[in-house]
Structure formats: C-alpha cells, structure tokens
Amino acid sequence: MRKFVLSICAVLMCGLAVAQNVRVSGTISDSEGHALVGASVEVKGNASLGTVALDGGAYTISVPSSATLIFSYMGMVPQEIAVGGRTKIDVVMVADAHQVQDVVVIGYGSGVAAESVVGSVSSVASQKLANTPVANVADVLQGKIPGMQVYTDSGEPTAGATMIVRGVSSMNADTEPLYVLDGSPVSASVFRALNANDIESITLLKDAASTSIYGARAANGVLYITTKKGRVGMEPVIKIQYQGGFSTMVENKNFELMNSAEQIQFEEMLYPSLLSDPAWLTKKEYILRNNFNFDWKGYAYSQNAAVTGIDASVTGATNNTTYYVSAGYLDTEGIAPRSGNTRYSYRANIDAKIRDWFKMGTNIGLAYSEYQTSVTGWYTQSVDGLVYGQAPYNAPYEMIFNEDGTITLGEELDYFDWGGFYNPYYYYEKFPTSNNRINLSGSIYEEISPIKGLTLRASQNIDASDTRGSSWRLPSYVGNLSNGQRAESFSRYYQLTSSNTAEYKFDIGNHHVTALAGHESIIGHSNSFGASISGLTDDRLTMMTAGTASTASISSHTMVDEVSNSFFGRVNYAYSNLYHFDASLRTDGSSKFGRNARWATFWSVGGMWNIKNEDFMLNADKVNDLRLRVSYGTTGNSGIGNYIAYGTIGTGPNYNGQAGTTIGNPANHDLTWETVTTANVGITARLFNRASVEVDVYNRVTSNMLMDVPYSAATGYSSGWGNVGKLQNRGFELQASYDLVQRPDMLWTVYGNVAYNNNQIIELYNGIQEFVDGATGLKYGVGHSVGEFTGVHFVRVDPRDGMPVWLDKNGNETKQYSDSNENWIDMSYNADWSGGFGTSFTWKGLTASADFSWVGDRYMWLNEKFYTANVNFGGTGGTRYEKRLLNMWQKPGDVTDIPKAFTPFNFDTTVYSNAAFLRLKNVTLSYNLPENLLNKTGFVKGARIFAIGRNLLTFTDYLGFDPEHFSNGSKGTYPGTRQYTFGVELTF
Amino acid sequence: MKKIFQFVAVALATLSISSCDLEKLPYTAIEQEVAFQSVQDLANYRVGFYSPLKQLTVGGRLYYEDIRGDMFHALADFGNFVGLPYAWIMESTDQDAEGLWFGDYSYISNMNYALDAFPKFLEDYAETLDEDDVKLVNQYIAEAHMTRAIAYLDLVTKFCKAYNPATAETDLGLMITEHYAPTSDNTKYPGRSSLKATYDFIMEDIKAAEAGITAAGAPNSVYYTVDAVKALKARVALYMQDYQTASTLAHSLIDGGKYALAEGDNFVDMWVNDASTENIMLVTMSLQDAGAATGTYFIYDNDKGDGTTPDPQYMPTQALLDLYGEGDIRFEAYFAERYVETEVFGEDDLWLFYKYTGNPALRTGAKWNYVQMGKPFRIAEQYLIAAEADAQLGGNYVANGAAALNTLRAARIANYTEENYMTDAQLLAAVKTERARELVGEGFRMQDLKRWGQNVTRGASQSPSTQMMKTGANYGEMTNKDINSPGALWPIPKTEIDANPQIRGQQNPGY
Fold it and tell me: By C-alpha distance, which of A736, A883, A909 is closest to A807?
C-alpha cells in the first residue's frame, strides 16, 4: 500500500514539471564498447515516457530537464543519471555480477546466474536447435550434452528419441529423464509436438544438487526446456521462414545382400545338384542374360521424401507486456510406404507486469499432427521383410513370363506367390491408416512480490493430448474380398499440475540468502478405447455403420489415474560470491506405490567455490573463470506401471459364454520409491578468454531398485514387483571449447565433449549372483553391467571340416554347441563411452557449423542374421543372403569364418556386432544478406539463407541396419534417415 | 498486508484442492480384499475354474507328449517346431517347460485363492446366505478342487517319474502349494514333495471334489459331474497302480450306460464337430473363447488352408499306421493321405495325422485352425482303464477286462470278431496296443510308456526321404530313446530353480 501511495505522489509531481522538456540523446554500450541494442531508458517516476536503444545503441528521449533517467539492460547494473539540463548522455553499463545474462533454471524459484550454479547442468541454446528437419527436437541434442546419450531409434517421421543420462539407473523402471517445459513437468511426447524454432534453450540437470528438488522421477536427470519470450523494451521482431528439402535412407554398407548373380552362385554352392538341373540352368541363363537385378531397397525406401517447413513468429514487448507468438508447419514424408507426419504448431508466450508487485503470464503450446506409420519388425507384411528378408522369395529376380511374351517384374506384382506375401505398396494401399493427435501444453502463472525479496508464485499447467486412429482393410483387398474391416481408436491423456512457491531473498552484508518453499500436485488421467467391425463391402462406404453388427468387437478399453503430491524447500546461501551452498528437501507421495510406502523424502546438499573471485586470483588475468562444485544427495524414480502395488481380481476367463474373474496382480503394500544417490565433483574454468573447460566426476548408486523379482511358480506368479538390489553408475564428463579466431568480424570455435560411464550391478535379490529376465531373455549378473550379453564364444571355423569351434565353460575348444557354455562376453548394448565434437565459424554474415556425435564400446544382437545368414531354412530363391556368406567354407583347407553349408544356426558370439558409431549429425550453412542491400527494400530488416544437412556421414563397423538404435538387438527396424534442406528467413 | 492475506488464502485454497487423494484404484480390477461380496461374485470367479481346461485338455498339453513319444517322425523341413521335446534335448531354459510349469501353477494358484476365500466367504456372510447359496458355494469349492487336481496331474505326468508304490516315498514329486500367498521371501517357497505325497494330494483333491459335486452325469456335460470326477479318479488310481479302485470306477462308468461308444460316422463326426455320446465331459468353446490349437504341427496347411496342401512338421510312423487293421474306423477318422512337398528334401504321398483338423464352428476364417474342444474324459478311456486294471489284477478280473476291451474294439472295427484274451499278460499286451490305437494324439503316450517302462522306439518311417534324419549332439538320436534316460522327464525350469532355494538340488536328472 505504501508503494501505491508513493507512485500517486510521483505522478502528481511530474505533472508540475511538464513545461521544461529537453531532448536527450546518446548511446548505450557495454564496457567493451558493444552497443546494447534494446537497452531501456526510463524516466524515474514516469515509466510511460520510456524508450529503447536502437541500432548502435542510440536513443533519443524527450524529458523534463530535471528528470532522472534509469538505464537498464538485462544482466547489467541499472544506472540512474540525472539529466541536469544535458542533451547528450552516453552510458557505459557494467555487468551485474549477481545477474549475468545466462540465468540458469534450478527448479522452481527464479533461477540463478550461471556462475552461481552449484549443481551440474549443461545447456544447448536455440541456435543449435533451430530448423531441425525432423519433428523430434531431441535428435539435435545427440552429442551436445556430455553424459546424455540420445538415440533416434528409427527414420519414421514420428519417431521419438531414447535419452539416457549418466548410464542406465534402473533395471526395470523407467530410465528416461523428467521433462520440464517452462517449469511444468510434461510427458515425453512433448518432443514431437514442440516446434524447434520456439525453443530458447534446453538444459539438462544432472547431479543431486540440481535435480533433487524435483524428487519424483528426477533420478534420471531433468531435461528443462525453455521456450522463447519477448524482452522488456525490445523492438518487435517479425520473422518468417521457409525451408524445404528431402530425406533419404542412411544405408549401412556393411549390411550388404547378394545380387542376383551372387545369389545364384551361392545357391549352387549350397546345392551342387542344381548345376545339372536343366530347369535351373535355363532360369539362371535367362536371369543373367537379362541382368535381372532389382534394387528392392531403393524400391521400398524412396530416395527423396519431401521435407517442408514454414514458420512465422512475432516477438516483442509493449509497455509492460512481452510476447512471443509463433505458428509453424512441418511436413515430413517418410521414406517407407505409408509413413509420414504433418504438424501444425502454435505458441503464445505472454508475460505482463500488471502492477509493480504483480506479474502474470501464460505459455501456451498447441500442436496438431496427422501421421501414418509404416510396419517394421520383419513381420510378413513389413517393408524390411521385403527388402532383406523373406519376400519376394525369388528376389532379386522374381518375374512372370506373360503369354504375350512380355515379362512382369517382381515389383509390379501385387502378390508374390512363392511365400504368400503381398507387395507392400499394394498391401498398404489396401490397409490405409489415418492418425491424428492434438497436443496441448499450456500454463499460466501469477506472481506477486508483496514485500522486497519475497516472491509468491502460483502456476497451473495442463499437458494433454488427444489421439485418434483409423485403420482399414478395404473390401477390394483380394485376401478378404468383399469383407472389409474398419477399426477406430481414441485415446486421451491429460495431466494437471498445480504448483505454488514462496521464495524469499535477502542480503545481510555479503551474505546472500534465498529460501524457497513450495508445493506441487499432479493429477494425471489417460484413457483409450478401440473397436473394429468387419463385413464392409464397398471401398467407398467404410464407416463402421456399414459393417456387420455381429462382427463388432472391442479391441481395447483402458483407463488410468495417477496422482502425486509434493512438498519441497531449498535454501541457497552465498557469501560474497565466493562460497555458495545449496540444500534442498523434497517429500513426494505417489499413487503408484503401496499403501504403506507412498511417501518418500529426497534431499541434497551442494557447495560451490568461486575461486576466481578470491583475492589471490585477482592478478591471474589469464584465468577468467574458475569454480569448483561439489554435491551429494538423493532423487527418486517412480517410473513403473500404475496399480501394481495392489493385489487384484481382474477380468479374463471365459467359459461357456460367460465372462469371469481371476486373480490379477500380487499385492505389495510396501512397494516404494527407487532411490538414486549421487555424488558429484566438478570444475568449471575459462582461460585466456578463449578456452572453456568443464569436468565432472560422479558416482550414482541406485538402491531399493524397482524390479520385477522372479517368484517361484508355487506363488502362482513368475514374478512380482519389489524394491531390491543395487546398481552403480560412475563416470566422468569432460567438455571443452576453444575460440580459434576471435575478431570482431570473425569467430571460429571448436568444441568437444567426452563422457565415460561404468555401469555395474552391485546386488540383485535374495543374494543370487545372476538371473535371466523372463520377459527379455537378458541375463543380469552381479559385477556386470545392465545390458551385458552372454553367449557361447565362437573361436573359428576348423579349416579341416568347416565346423565351427567354440569355447566351453572351461575355456577349451569344442565343436559341440551347448547353451550351458554361455559366458559373459564383455559386450553390452549400453555404451560406456559417448560424446560429440564440432566447430562453428562466423565471418561477417556467413556462418558454418558441423556437429559430430559418437558412442563407443557398444554392441547389439543381430537378430536379422537368423534369416540373412542362416541357410537352414533351405531352398532356392528364399531369403536373400548377406554377401559375406560367399566366403563359406567349401573344402578342407578353406580358411574362413563362415562354417560349411547347413551347419545349424546358433546364437553364439557371432551374432553380436560392434554398434559403436560416429555420425556427422548436423551441418549448417547460413548467410545473412548485407544490411545495405536490405535497407533499399525499406521494410526487410534481415534476410538469411541457410542449408542444413542431417546424418550426412556415418562411420561404423556395425553389421546390421543402423547402429543408432537403442535396444539389445535389431530386427527389421526402420532405417535412419538423412535430410538435406534449404531455407530462407526474413525478419521485419 | 491485506494483499498477502488474500494471497495466502487463495494459495491455501488451491493447495487444498490440488492436494489430492493418493489412493487410486484400478478400473480394470477389484482389490482382492473386497472382491467377494456376493454369491454372484463367486460365480464369476468360478468361470476361471473351467477356462483353464481350454488349455489343459487341448493344445500343447496333448501334442507335446505324443511328439515326445514313439508314434511320430519329424519331417525334414520341420523347422525345429517342438524340436527339442521331440529330440529329448529340452533344456531348463526352454520356454516350453516354463510355459507348462508356470502355466499350471498359475491355474493352481487361482484355485488356491478360491479355496482360501470361498470358505471364508461362507463364514463372513453366514447370516445372509440361504441353504441353496451354501450348497452352491460348496459345489464351487469342490469344483476348484477338481481343477486343481487336473492341473497337478498334468504337471506330475510331465515332470515326474511314473508312480511306483515301492519307491514313491522317495521319488520326487511336485512342489505342493495349497494356499494363495505370493511373496518375494524365497525362504517360504516349497521344495518338491515325494511322489507319493503328490499323488496323495491329488487324490485328496479328487475326494473333496466328490464331496461337493453332485450334478448327475450326462454326455457332453460342460461342467463337472459326478461321472467326470469318477473318470478322473479312475485314471489317477490306474496311474497309482491302485487297480482295484481303477477297475471298480471304470466299470461303474461303463455299466452306468450313459455314455455309448460312438460308431461309424458318429465316431468320425466326433473328431470334427466334437460332441459325442462318448464324452463324459466336453470342454466347450466358441469362436470368441476358443482354446489352444491341437493339430497344427500335424497338418499346417497355410497355402489353401483346407488340408489339401499340408506342410506338416510331424508325420505318423509306419509302425503306428500298421496298428490299424481292415475296417478300423479310427484309421479313417485319424489319418488322411496327402501329397507333401518339402523344401529341398523331396516330396511324397504321406499318411498324415488328421485327428485335429479343427471344429468348423471354431474357425475365424476359411482356413483350418486346428482348434478342437477338449474331451478330457471319453468313455473309451474308461474301457481301456478297466481292461488294463483288470489285466493287472489278474485272475477272475481278466474276463471282465477282456469283455471291456472287446466291446471297445467292436465299436471301432467293422465286422469285428471277438478276441480271446486268455491270460492277464495277453490282455495287458492287447490293452497297451489298444491305448496307442485309440488315444493317439490325446496326450497319454509318454505317461503310458513311463508307466510301462517301455522304451521309445520310433520305428520304421513311412517316408525316409522326407523324414528328419539328423543326428548328433544338436539333435540327439532321433529314433530310439531309453525311457529311463533324462529326456523322459521335463526339466524344472531354471527360472524356478534360480528363484527357489528349496528346489535346488531337486532338478530332474540330466538337466
């Protein structure tokens, strides 16, 4: 109330002084002489007279000669200068040590300056994220954040990414980070709905000091996404951009199949009797003479699927309101048939200062996607099946001799007779699908500052999606002629989040304290419903009402609630910007856990020593920044299914036309949070004003691990959920960057990062040393990593008889294959090493950058080999074989690693392949047209043309489809894609 | 200051709205503690006493034990389907064994739950239940005992030796569990009981079933009847070498006269449309709730789908085909000659096992799906039990047994002339052959061979060129197996041994 009275007085006094106005102008710059465009100039006591510095930092303002001007700019110390009759005032602003530009989110509260951060955090800024030619922004993060591995599992335009932070921290529960969008937790699907150009930055919070405040699900790190906002006082910027290009398949040359001549040669090696079979010889001669050698891969995965993106945004501010409003369109066709994604996205981020003590705002993101997905996985009608596997069985030389003397080539057939397999192009035409999804991610907040230093904030968020799917089997499909089918599915998800925080900042001399207390509730609900009907007879009449009622069936109906409640608090204490201490505490309750154990408390402590600010470093002018960070604390993981703590009776049995009930889940009322305890030590340094280095060493121990523990069958179950065992991840991260050239018109930077993580199971359950997960067939062993494979060690092929030689349990060579000789083979599908490196170069208007990413020490199981390297299915014209089988052992003395024909196929160590890779993830070239050129147009302020390439190069020894696939094995995955796009961006 | 109070009030209001209840119950299930509140709730749960029969009386529970026996050969391109059981080289890590073990114990656990909860319901709701309710619930309890007995019997015939009264006290039986108490505390898991204790437990269940199941028997009963219990008891008694009981019960079922042996076209029809006067019980199925397929691996016609273009994994041995004489309707009902083309290994006209072509009423499309309803207790089996028990009892019993056997054979064979089975040995030998002839494909073979101590001799092939001939470490000796060698019993799954310290050291030999 006191403030209000004061401002009324100020207005009254100003009114008296209006008569004596002067025109003041000048420039505003920082201590290095850089113009501060957008810096604001206000008249003390009369905000309505303010202006903003424009080009060159120049400003002009008409004010009373007795006025006092307030100059301010984000990250700088505001200055108050009395006009005192002057007409020219140049201002040099100095950086505010307490408020550097990079404000880092640390979970709730107002965030802290980058140089005050106690925890371990890494950010990727908007420049790196913009214009990514795939719908999934996460893809760009690959290789950018040390300690986070990102795998884009497939080239499907709707594909998401798998993100692993500092190693897999759980065996059976989720290993995904917690995603937070502008302060509110959201689901992973946000990445598909977010327009990359709307993102200001993505920050990964890694250690306990930074994540513990998030308690629930923070065990795997927190990925904090901040979208763009307007800045107070800025000139409105209108941006329009267009980009277009195309996708092609990323082909792994290591996985090469035989061509016709080779396949024929190989089949004759398998069946020498063919050489005296006249029918075979005629066929062979015909094939070779006509050079039938069809490129099934190229046929199935079109080589130029279009990518189109159009974006428009307006950023700016009016007196007390900032805004960012955007619309985006991204259309990505898939390279496989019936695959594609079209997304319309809209965003409005508006913040308004209503009163000095009251701020509010809203972040609304909307997206509508229409998409179709192809079929993968080596099923009969999957595309990969056509290309690599079973059909057409006579590939690559399937053909039909027509009566009129012409030949129908395989690809023109609708049906490949030999194996009962339809041409996928025909099949997908007859089995169309149509899916769409609306995503809503919106929040509003209200923030009041009733007294100095105290901020009370309430925010309300909705994260929601609504998905619809339709699929058809058209009545004209010859496999079920005149008996079409229609299926419809609906699913909806929403999560309401309400969080309320109170933050109080106060200083006592050099002691700075920030205390935060808060509460957060999340209510989540999802439901889905699917139904189908058959009996459609006309391709044009395919609504479900056209089907035969008696064939209607409900394929799914689910409904799930999830609720959590949290109370948390944090205290930051800083002494003279030398020593920083953090302590946080959070109590979380989740509906997922057992009645007796729903609540758990997580905590952290951390400290940071800003060595550079010490007196003894004052003269060390080669060192620009040097900080030591230490933290320790706990976070929780609740990433398990709902309701699994209850003992239930469910539906299921049917007999004699009656539906009945049966026992469902076994009860575990003590099921509780999995806890990850993290210790972290890190150093951040900047040297010679050119080099930045950051090193972190950590140890994470998962305890009370949520695991599906194997039970004795006597319980009636094969397993049940419990909190058992321990898992450890320890490792280090190193990132560095160096400015090779630092001139006003030229900047050339190189960067690189390396992360090493060692994953080890410390304890399983009941004291056992190893067990096989019934669901996945993977073995877990104490002292081994999650994902380490076991196998019978293949040594060589005996040149004498062509038989494979293995090692038995005792390490002796044997020719008898037995699963009992399985050993740990020190290969894991969880990579120990990962990283990235790249460079960026800016010269005048030209910018070029290249980003590589890599993972090392990683293996996958080649499930495809069971088909493409296994001749035991027999017959000619069957599966196409891998080219390397031509090296098959044939006669005594042959030295090779391919055993003789018809050796039984065993899943020994030869099915594991080195899946390490180095990938040129992104290349960007962009050019800003010179201003003097644009000035002639009078309204175009900036124009930029750019070109982007994604996944341009891959270096790998992997023998399967694509090493960038996060799974223990691969079989018929959708190949990764490469994009080339070109674009133009205009600013008004 | 007023502002602050207002804000705090609003904040508290928000807090109280958003601090919500963490007790969220599933929509698809009921918490166990409150699941049974009415007799109707129990009736719903009782559906689950019968639905397991759609697995226990058909599918793999049958064909495993016939493929492992001596009456089928694998074709050269059999693709290793059921290959390890066929070659007697199962491993404790195989999913086949896991499926049987965990599957049957899950049925047992379902019954255990009912056997704990239903009596408790009777106590808790005693005041609200009338006499009929109590009688009904007691019938349900008896039915749960019956299903539990069937599940234990399925396990004991696959994982344990045949019952020998002399050694049953020391031979290993099954883990016996009679209460529902899932726990991760592995010290509470049971080890294997003796074979005697296991069979005694099964008999106890059957007696409990007898006590509460009062429905009179009638052909094709879809629920348990007095006669179904009797038929099971006769079978178990035979397995326990309690021949007196077996003989008495089997004869009483035969003499009851309710179940006429099917003859001629009626017999053929039973293997197509399932219903028959022979069925003491028929495990009914419909399109919507069909059970496991039984005949797939003997036919597998994916091309035309009507059995004219088969691509089977297993074919009958010549020895089996030779068992059937002139005029035997079973040959017509069980076998069909078809042209079979194997990939690479040639083609041949083969007599294939067409006993389970699939009930047309259970087909979802035009193609055969080899699904038949379960026929757990056929009167024909009782004739064979009577004859075998009588042969074992010897003396005066032989004549009764011989009569039973002749009656069965007369129903199957046109213009049948009665055989004279003079001695118990003659009768026993004849019964053994007749069991093969009559019950082939019905899942009895391995148990019979084990009971009789008879080795597996797969014998002459009807088509050596298309037969799987591989031998060696990976496939084992394909033709002959010593009935006392390890492969005669299924391995206890390794997952069980890993989870259950009490069962360590109790694995079947050879695994």
Answer: A909
